[in-house]
Design brief:
heterodimer, A: alpha/beta, Rossmann fold, 7-stranded mixed β-sheet, B: 787 residues, alpha/beta, Immunoglobulin-like, 5 domains, 8-stranded mixed β-sheet, 6-stranded mixed β-sheet, 17 helices, 25% helix
Chain lengths: 248, 787
């Protein structure tokens, strides 16, 4: 469908939504579900909440400001299509029941964000995570997510992943039937977003400082948008707009 | 026998020996003479050599005479009459007028052979045999020749005549000529008189379709030459013929709605010097497109009529050219056909008020469906999100093109889905979303489909109470309705939902109920009330409206020609994803929405009432039968329901018929309407149960001549001319033709009645002379020293 409206039309009128936005409860909200395992599964305790807060503030997504910590064998696992596996060190192998639950979750539409808080390329957490992914999805390959992938344009136009550190410049992932089911975030994404109880940044962001921190938020929001919209921004209707802005 | 009975003689051999034996004897005699000549070549005395060679030659001649026994045969001869075959075309095309308002071609042909004095004059010169032919050749009595059976095409609006003889349904000139040439038991064929309009639809037409110089045409001309007699072709339609015809229409069996399609019409023209005519394509009597065609006398033109069908269904189309002054045949100025217009893919507009799991799973389902052409708009950012740092150029957002999708292109969609979408933030410039709501409601009433899926931005919570969309929803909205609930609940199938195709996940009712009860519970519901005329398929058993009825979770409604559906929850995604936790693929979720889409866009398989003509094309002689399938709102057979069928010609002033029937226990009824005149028709049915209408349906069919005789009846004088030229005959107009004046030559054939043979001389004197000559040669050879 050809669209010819100027981008300036993005300026919208005042919000007139009814004041009942929360009334449908948690199942209509997006909630980060942090996987609990034997190890340091929550290295950035406030990271996900800060991301959720930014998502709520910047987008129309109805998001839960509280993340959920959940075991892979929890019967409620499938209440949460977006899972996060975080850590900064090696962790013991998952049980077969855990692996089977995660395998089914990803196969039927779930998305797993693996956030390496260590900031070390090919560090012990990343190796353990790759080991588990090989066991959970033995027929899938971990590949580099191309820069042209919709993950980098699902809301913000980005050139790559961001986080507390800048290690690889690229993110890896696992595709299932064309859908990105697993995202490896190599740069400690939550580390860039975590604040303490007084609102201060918990960690410095290097080498880019606040600008890099902003891009870490944008990358996180793009991940959330991709989880909920998948390849929406690959629809033909978006292409001319995105190409024009990329050129600018 | 008196010697005077013989009037001719000829020399013959009376020898009983066969011809080859006689030839052998002649060769032996010549050899003997040659041997004598060579044996005497050394003799210097020429006289002796001449005598001996002369005696050898004389002896050889006498020996030949003895063996051959020459004689004279006396003959009593007489000249016989040649055979003349008169072939009269009896095919159905001969029932057409030879000229406007004039006699039929068959009448003109009958006049040629009707004159007894002419037949008598011809019989004095030839043995005349009269044949009628169409497909097969048969003897006819020229004195009682009448017109062929039907006049139906000449009077398309009139009542049909008696069933036609199928043997008259085609014309095959060449085999008829060959069969006529072969008959006659060896009597020489003087010629063939062919009285025909030349409208061949057999081998001649097939051979000439690639031109007269094609291999097929040349082979056919060779067959005509092999007849061995001239063909005199008399054309009853010659001279004054004027005709413009739609001689062929090429079109696919089906077309895709909203996709351009082309109908290719071939026009032929005879008798007009030059014609510029409009060619129209009509659907159910309404012109949908037209083109101009230019034709010259005897020529043809192919016109491409392009149009875009905007509605699915079966329609009767007609390609038509205007009737010209003095046309001989007007029935071939149009040609009708039935075209099935189908969806290539269901075109869905999906507007989501915010990204959520419910919208993500539904969009994913639609996106994966190869039968769905999906256009999606997510509201990714609301006005309250505008205060953030990023500039527009750093975002991938596009403007919400309300005018384009809700005004310009709305009618191109088969289904519009509002999923947790509120129009209220977009009522001001540049969106004016509220101004498009009446158009969306009209789109649904006019045949579109609308699905609203629940959420905090849907139904009354989205501000739709009192809006134009509230009028077409299957649920009633109240501005004062209590807030949506977040409580989990297991939706309950209603009695209608047990059988309705949307919620029919299993063919068995008990299994269907069991599957629904096994699905993960939903959480949260928009509070609504079932609208009058709507049907609830799933309800929340825990919550009731003010009248005590359970709140609808899934409800459907027919709105004018369109349909609407409401899903008042925003957690149906749980049927897909949470089912996976139990190891169950999301079949129920996929089936539910696939069925919903098919029902909303009126998939013919899911409509309550269906009407199907037994055939797409009937002949004017056969009864038209329509089959009605009727189901009640719960999709059980509508046994006992009354059907009112009406068939109407789509031509202005065309005939119509009506009939009633009662639906049988299996939900069907056959309605016969008798035979109908040729033309395109549209049938419609209304089904009522206990006086309440339960549905309507329509279908199209065509009544037309099925055979080529009346579909391609144009005379073919050029083909008659070709036959005449190939055989050495002539082509003439039949009107006023005199059979006795045709320049048919008499064959050079005699018939021998008596014969008698006599030897020219007795054999004994010849034998004695032979002995004397041989003895003289022997004596002289010995005397002159030759051994």
């Amino acid at each position: 469908m050809p669209l010819a409206r100027p981008a300036a039309a993005l300026v919208l009128v005042a919000l007139l939504l009814p004041g009942r936005a929360r009334a449908f409860g948690a199942s209509s909200q997006l909630t980060f579900a942090l996987i609990r395992y034997d190890g340091n599964y929550d290295p950035r305790p406030n990271g996900l909440e800060r991301i959720a807060w930014e998502v709520e503030k910047r987008t129309s997504i109805n998001v839960s400001l509280q993340s959920k910590i959940i075991d892979l064998t929890d019967p409620d696992l499938f209440q949460y299509p977006l899972l996060v596996l975080a850590g900064d060190s090696d962790f013991p192998p998952f049980s077969e029941a855990q692996r089977e639950a995660l395998r089914r979750h990803l196969a039927f539409g779930g998305l797993l964000l693996i956030d390496d808080a260590s900031g070390e390329p090919d560090g012990p957490f990343e190796q353990a995570a790759r080991r588990e992914m090989a066991a959970v999805l033995p027929n899938a390959r971990i590949v580099r997510i191309p820069k042209s992938h919709v993950l980098y344009k699902s809301f913000y136009l980005l050139d790559g992943p961001s986080g507390r550190v800048a290690t690889a410049g690229d993110a890896d992932g696992i595709f299932l039937q064309g859908r990105l089911a697993v995202i490896f975030s190599p740069d400690d994404l939550e580390g860039a977003t975590a604040r303490d109880a007084f609102g201060n940044w918990e960690m410095d962001v290097t080498p880019g400082g606040d600008l890099q921190r902003e891009y870490a938020y944008r990358f996180a929001i793009n991940i959330v948008m991709y989880a909920l919209c998948l390849d929406y921004k690959d629809d033909q209707v978006h292409i001319p707009f995105i190409m024009r802005r990329r050129q600018q | 026998m008196s010697p005077t009975a013989y009037n001719a003689w000829r020399l013959v051999s009376l020898s009983p020996l066969p011809a080859w034996a006689l030839a052998l004897c002649g060769a032996a005699a010549a050899g003997a003479v040659l041997l004598a000549w060579r044996g005497l070549s050394a003799e210097d005395r020429r006289a002796r050599r001449a005598v001996l060679v002369g005696l050898r030659a004389l002896g050889a001649a006498l020996a030949v005479l003895v063996v051959v026994e020459p004689g004279v045969e006396l003959l009593a001869t007489m000249r016989i009459r040649g055979r003349l075959a008169v072939l009269v075309d009896r095919s159905r095309s001969m029932s057409l007028p030879a000229r406007p308002n004039g006699p039929t071609r068959a009448d003109v042909a009958a006049q040629v052979v009707a004159d007894a004095s002419e037949r008598a004059a011809l019989a004095r010169r030839f043995q005349v045999e009269y044949f009628g032919f169409a497909g097969d050749l048969s003897s006819i009595d020229p004195a009682t020749l009448t017109s062929p059976a039907t006049q139906a095409i000449a009077d398309p609006a009139g009542a049909p005549s008696a069933p036609p003889d199928p043997s008259l349904d085609h014309t095959d000139l060449v085999p008829a000529l060959e069969e006529a040439a072969r008959s006659g038991a060896g009597r020489p064929l003087a010629g063939i008189v062919l009285i025909s309009d030349g409208a061949d639809n057999g081998r001649l037409a097939a051979a000439l379709q690639h031109g007269s110089s094609s291999p097929e045409a040349k082979a056919l001309l060779a067959r005509l030459k092999a007849l061995g007699a001239p063909v005199y072709a008399l054309d009853p339609a010659a001279g004054a013929l004027k005709d413009l015809a739609v001689s062929a229409v090429k079109v696919d069996d089906f077309a895709f709605v909203r996709n351009p399609m082309t109908v290719e019409a071939k026009l032929t023209e005879q008798g007009y010097r030059k014609l510029e005519v409009p060619v129209t394509l009509e659907r159910d009597g309404q012109v949908v497109t037209s083109a101009e065609a230019s034709l010259t006398d005897g020529g043809s033109a192919t016109v491409k009529l392009k149009f875009v069908p905007d509605t699915t269904g079966d329609f009767a189309f007609t390609v038509r050219v205007p009737v010209q002054d003095g046309e001989a045949v007007t029935a071939n100025n149009s040609r009708s056909f039935v075209l099935k217009v189908i969806r290539d893919r269901v075109r869905v507009l999906f507007v989501a008020g915010r990204p959520s799991w419910d919208e993500r799973f539904l969009r994913q389902l639609l996106k994966r469906d190869p039968n769905v052409d999906l256009i999606t708009f997510f509201i990714l950012r609301t006005p309250s999100n505008l205060t953030m740092a990023a500039s527009d150029d750093e975002l991938s957002l596009i403007p919400f093109p309300t005018d384009e999708i809700f005004s310009q292109q709305l009618k191109t969609f088969d289904l519009v889905i509002f999923d947790d979408f509120s129009f209220m933030p977009y009522t001001n410039a540049p969106y004016f979303m509220d101004s498009y709501l009446p158009g969306i409601a009209d789109y649904v009433r006019g045949g579109g489909a609308f699905l609203m899926v629940g959420g905090t931005n849907s139904f009354a919570d989205g501000g739709y109470a009192g809006s134009p969309l509230a009028d077409i929803l299957p649920v009633l909205l109240s501005r004062s309705a209590p807030q949506p609930t977040a409580d989990p609940f297991q939706p309950l199938l209603t009695p209608g939902g047990l059988l309705h195709p949307i919620t029919r996940l299993q063919p068995n009712e008990a299994a269907n109920e069991a599957e629904w009860s096994s699905l993960p519970p939903l959480t949260g519901i928009n509070r609504t009330t079932l609208a009058p005329g709507a049907q609830a398929l799933l309800v929340d058993p825990n919550l009731t409206d003010q009248s005590g009825r359970p709140l609808p979770v899934v409800a459907v409604r027919d709105v004018g020609r369109g349909r609407s559906m409401a899903v008042t929850a925003d957690s149906t995604w749980r049927w897909a994803f949470l089912a996976a936790a139990q190891g169950t693929p999301p079949h129920a979720y996929e089936q539910f929405y696939h069925h919903a889409i098919r029902w909303l866009v009126r998939d013919p398989e899911l409509t309550q009432v269906q009407l199907d003509a037994e055939k797409e094309r009937f002949s004017p002689e056969e009864p038209v039968t329509l089959i009605v399938k009727a189901r009640e709102s719960n999709y059980g057979p509508a046994a006992g329901a009354r059907v009112e069928v009406r068939v109407q010609s789509t031509q202005p002033g065309g005939p119509s018929r009506a009939a009633d029937g009662v639906v049988s226990a299996d939900g069907t009824v056959r309605v016969e309407l008798g035979s109908l005149p040729a033309g395109p028709y549209r049938g419609s049915v209304v089904v009522r149960q206990d006086g309440q209408e339960i549905g309507r349906a329509a279908d199209a069919f065509v009544v037309s001549e099925s055979g080529p005789e009346l579909l391609e009846p144009a005379p073919r004088p050029e083909w008659l001319r070709l036959i005449a030229q190939a055989t050495g005959g002539e082509e003439r107009p039949a009107a006023g033709a005199k059979l006795s004046r045709l320049p048919i030559p008499q064959p050079q054939a005699l018939e021998i009645g008596q014969r008698e043979s006599h030897p020219l001389w007795d054999r004994l004197p010849v034998l004695l002379a032979l002995c004397l000559v041989l003895g003289s040669e022997w004596f002289l050879r010995r005397r002159w020293g030759f051994y």
